[in-house]
TrEMBL record:
One of its GO terms (molecular function) is phosphogluconate dehydrogenase (decarboxylating) activity. It comes from the Bacteria. GO terms for biological process: D-gluconate metabolic process; pentose-phosphate shunt. It comes from Brockia lithotrophica. Its EC number is 1.1.1.44. This is 6-phosphogluconate dehydrogenase, decarboxylating. It catalyses: 6-phospho-D-gluconate + NADP(+) = D-ribulose 5-phosphate + CO2 + NADPH. SUPFAM superfamilies: 6-phosphogluconate dehydrogenase C-terminal domain-like (SSF48179), NAD(P)-binding Rossmann-fold domains (SSF51735). Pfam families: 6PGD, NAD_binding_2. Catalyzes the oxidative decarboxylation of 6-phosphogluconate to ribulose 5-phosphate and CO(2), with concomitant reduction of NADP to NADPH.
C-alpha cells in the first residue's frame, strides 16, 4: 500500500513524486499520458514507487486514510482529474488539489466532494520545480480534521525552516489554502516588479555594468531582506548568453507574461475594498509591457521620457527604497488575507501563513520570522504596520522610498510599484483624507447623501448648481 498518490506528472507533479520518494514515502503515480508515469516509475526502479494505468487501481493502491494529490493544470483539467478519481475514493479519504485553482473553483469542488463524503483540501504549493524536488512550502486549507489525517505525510514532504519546523501548516477553512496561494502569487508579482524597477534605475540611469548590478543586488540581499527573489535576480544578472556572451537577461524580450494569479489578487483587493495598490500596479506594469507595438509607436511619435536630474540617489537610498516597498507589498497581502478571512469566513491563521512562507516558498524572506512572532503574540492586530517592530523597519526607510520615488518621477523612469507602495503608506497614515470632497460632489450631482463629522445620520443638501440651473417646477 502506498502512502501518497500523485495524479499529474507535469513539472510539479513529477518533482513532488520524487521528493516524496526521497523522504521515505511510498508513492503511487498516475498521469493522463500514461507512458510518462510508467517511464518515471521505471527510472526510479523501486517497488515503493509504482505507476498505474487506471484510476481505480491507482486509488485502491493507497493506504487508508488515503492521501491523493491532484497536480494538474488549474481549471477544466482539475475538474477532469477530480471526476476521474472521486468515484473510487471512500469516506475518510482526503483529496488534495495542489494546483493553482481559483478559490471559487475550490469552493465548488469542495461542496461536490462533501456530497460524496470525501474530504477536500485545497492546497497552495510554492517553490517551483526545484522547490518541489527539494522541499516546497505547502498551504493546505479546508476540512481541519481531514488535515490532521494527512499532516504527517505533508510535513515529511515540505521544506524545513531554520528552526526545524516544517513549511506546512493549516491555513484555514474551506478555500483558505488556495486563497493564501493566490495572495502569495500577488506578492510575487509585486516583488518582481519592484526588482525590475530597481534594475531599471541601476542599469539604464546609473549606467551600472553587469558586475556592479549583481553586486548591488547581492548587498541588498541581507538581514531581514535576505530572500529568494533578490538572490535570484543577483544570480540572473551573472548568467551570460551562450550565443552572444552578453548577459542573457539583456537578450530577453521586454514582454512579461503571467498566468493570472496576480490579476486575481488585485481583483480581490478591489472587490473587498482593501489596499491593493501594489498588486494593481504590478499587473498594469505587465500589461503595459505586453503593449510593445504601442510603446514603440509612442516612443517614436512622442519621444522617450528621460529627463536627467542632477544627482543620482545614493546606493543606500536605492536599496532602502526597495526594502520599504517590498515590506509594504507583504503588508498589503496580509491585510487582504485578514479581510478575506472575515468576509468569506476562512478563519485564516495569519501566523501560520507567515511561518509557511519562510522556507521553500518563492516569497520567502527573513522578515517573515519577525512578522510571525508578532502575529503569534497578537493575532488580532489588523495591519502589519501596527506592529512597532514592523513599522520601525519601514519608518527607517521611509525617507529613502520618498527620495527614490521622487527621483524616479523627475527622471521619467516609470516606477509604478514603488509609487503605489509609497502612496499606500502615506494614505494609510492620514487622519483625514480628501474623501469629504468626493462625498460632497456625489451628493451635489446625484443626491447620494453624505455623513457628517459632528453627528450620526445621513444628510443631503440642495447644492446650488454651478451652472445656475434650477430644477424646473411642474407646470400648474
Ligand atoms: N510550475 C510551477 O512553478 C507551479 C508552482 C506551484 C503550483 N503550480 C500548479 O501546479 C499544477 C501543475 O503545474 P505544472 O507546472 O506541473 O504543469 P501543468 O502544465 O500545469 O500541468 C501538467 C499536468 O496536467 C495534466 N493535464 C493537463 N490537462 C489535463 C486533463 N484535461 N486531464 C488530466 N490531466 C491533465 C498533464 O497531463 P499530460 O502529461 O497527460 O499532459 C500533466 O500531468 C498547476 O495547477 C500549476 O498552476 C505550478
Amino acid at each position: 500500500m502506498h502512502d501518497i498518490g500523485i495524479y499529474g506528472l507535469g513539472v510539479m507533479g513529477e518533482n513532488l513524486a520524487l521528493r516524496a520518494h526521497d523522504v521515505g514515502l511510498s508513492v503511487a503515480v498516475f498521469n493522463r499520458t500514461k507512458d510518462k508515469a510508467f517511464a518515471l516509475a521505471a527510472r526510479v526502479g523501486n517497488p515503493r514507487f509504482e505507476a498505474f494505468a487506471e484510476p481505480a487501481a491507482f486509488v485502491a493502491s493507497l493506504r487508508r486514510p488515503r492521501l491523493l494529490l491532484l497536480m494538474v493544470t488549474a481549471g477544466p483539467a482539475t475538474d477532469a482529474a477530480f471526476e476521474a478519481v472521486l468515484p473510487f475514493l471512500e469516506e475518510g479519504d482526503v483529496l488534495v488539489d495542489g494546483g493553482n485553482a481559483h478559490y471559487e473553483d475550490t469552493l465548488r469542488r469542495e461542496a461536490r466532494a462533501r456530497q460524496a463524503r470525501i474530504a477536500y483540501v485545497g492546497m497552495g504549493i510554492s517553490g517551483g520545480e526545484l522547490g518541489a524536488r527539494t522541499g516546497p512550502a505547502l498551504m493546505p486549507g479546508g476540512d481541519a480534521e481531514a488535515y490532521t489525517r494527512i499532516a504527517s505525510r505533508l510535513e515529511a514532504l515540505a521544506a524545513r525552516l531554520p528552526d526545524g519546523r516544517p513549511a506546512v501548516a493549516y491555513m484555514g477553512k474551506s478555500a483558505a489554502g488556495h486563497y493564501v496561494k493566490m495572495v502569495h502569487n500577488g506578492i510575487e508579482y509585486v516583488f518582481l516588479q519592484l526588482l525590475a524597477e530597481a534594475y531599471d534605475a541601476l542599469r539604464n540611469v546609473y549606467g551600472y555594468a553587469s558586475v556592479e548590478l549583481a553586486d548591488a543586488f547581492a548587498r541588498a540581499n541581507q538581514g531581514p531582506w535576505e530572500s529568494y527573489l533578490i538572490g535570484l535576480v543577483r544570480h540572473i544578472l551573472t548568467v551570460p548568453d551562450p550565443e552572444t556572451s552578453q548577459p542573457l537577461v539583456e537578450q530577453i524580450l521586454d514582454v512579461a507574461e503571467g498566468k493570472g494569479t496576480g490579476l486575481w489578487t488585485a481583483e480581490e483587493a478591489l472587490r473587498l475594498g482593501v489596499g491593493g495598490s501594489t498588486f494593481a500596479a504590478a499587473v498594469h506594469a505587465r500589461n503595459l509591457s505586453r503593449e510593445r507595438d504601442l510603446r514603440l509607436a509612442c516612443a517614436e511619435a512622442c519621444g522617450e521620457p528621460w529627463h536627467r536630474p542632477e544627482a543620482l540617489p545614493a546606493y543606500e537610498t536605492w536599496r532602502d527604497a526597495l526594502h520599504a516597498a517590498v515590506l509594504i507589498a507583504y503588508a498589503q497581502g496580509f491585510a487582504l488575507l485578514r479581510r478575506a478571512s472575515e468576509t468569506y469566513d476562512f478563519a485564516v491563521d495569519l501566523a501560520n501563513v507567515a511561518q509557511v512562507w519562510q522556507s521553500g516558498a518563492i516569497v520567502r524572506i527573513r522578515f517573515l520570522a519577525n512578522l510571525e512572532r508578532n502575529l503569534r503574540r497578537s493575532p488580532e492586530t489588523s495591519h502589519p504596520l501596527l506592529f512597532p517592530e514592523i513599522w520601525e523597519f519601514v519608518r527607517e526607510r521611509e525617507n529613502a522610498l520618498r527620495s527614490f520615488a521622487a527621483w524616479a518621477v523627475r527622471t521619467g523612469m516609470p516606477a509604478p510599484a514603488h509609487l503605489a507602495a509609497l502612496a499606500d503608506l502615506d494614505g494609510l497614515r492620514r487622519r483625514r483624507l480628501p474623501a469629504n470632497l468626493i462625498q460632497a460632489a456625489r451628493d451635489a450631482f446625484g443626491a447620494h447623501t453624505y455623513r457628517r463629522i459632528d453627528r450620526e445620520g445621513s444628510f443631503h443638501t440642495s447644492w446650488p448648481d454651478p451652472e445656475g440651473r434650477e430644477i424646473p417646477r411642474p407646470r400648474s
